[in-house]
Amino acid sequence: MTSIKIKILGQTVAKYLTEGDLDEEKVKKITLDAKLESNDAKAMVAALELIFTSSARYGVSAADLSSELQQLGLPREHSAAIARLHTDHCPQITATLSSQSLRVSRLSSIEVLSRDNASPFSTVSLKLKKLDGNIENSIISISKKDVQVLLTELRRAKSLMENL
User: Fold this and answer.
1) Which helix (H) or strand (E) segment is 82 a member of?
2) Any idea of the CA torsion for 84, 86, 90, 96, to the nearest 10 degrees?
3) Strand partners, 134
4) pLDDT by position in tens, the chain (length 164)
5) Closest CA relative to residue 17, chosen from 62, 52, 59
6) What single DSSP character describes residue 61?
7) Do the Cβ atoms of 142 and 132 come closer than 8 Å?
8) Which Pfam families does the record match to this protein (predicted)?
9) Is 28 in contact with 44 (CB distance < 8 Å)?
């Protein structure tokens, strides 16, 4: 496979890492032109994904990345192409990885449902936005004394998490 095709494949993988959509047709076209089998193409995409995410996660410089890839046996032209892609896409990949780290779901709203003065409990609805984009509604019953404390604590925790 030529260094130009590695560069195009690397751009496709970097776009997938930052935007979340892998252009499978483009990958198939590149790998078929290079006469690679399906499993080899999958392995190349997985390897590029690992290289880009690991180098972004650990703050590797382009020169160190190129040197390490050459030590692993990759030709100089190929490692230089990957290092240039690393330089171009590292900030976006790092931002994407940071936004996804340690997240299970995101609190999107808090609402007190029952306002019945006779009941000692209030019903609170918590809307959580999952990583896949779906909204999950959780309803809890809590004593009226604890509602304001809970709301204050949840708002403070939400603001702290948004500032990370």
Assistant:
1) helix 76-100
2) 130
3) none
4) 888 999 999 999 999 999 888 888 888 898 888 788 888 889 999 999 999 999 998 999 999 999 999 999 999 999 999 999 999 999 999 988 887 776 667 778 888 776 677 778 888 888 888 877 788 898 888 887 787 887 889 889 989 888 87
5) 52
6) -
7) no
8) COMM_HN (PF21672)
9) no
**Residue with structure tokens 């003065």?**
117
Could you please report the per-residue DSSP string of 89-148?
Answer: HHHHHHHHHHHHTT-SEEEEEEEE----TTSSEEEEEEEEEETTS-EEEEEEEEEHHHHH
Q: Considering the entire predicted model, what is its pTM?
A: 0.62
Residue owning tokens 């299970």:
104
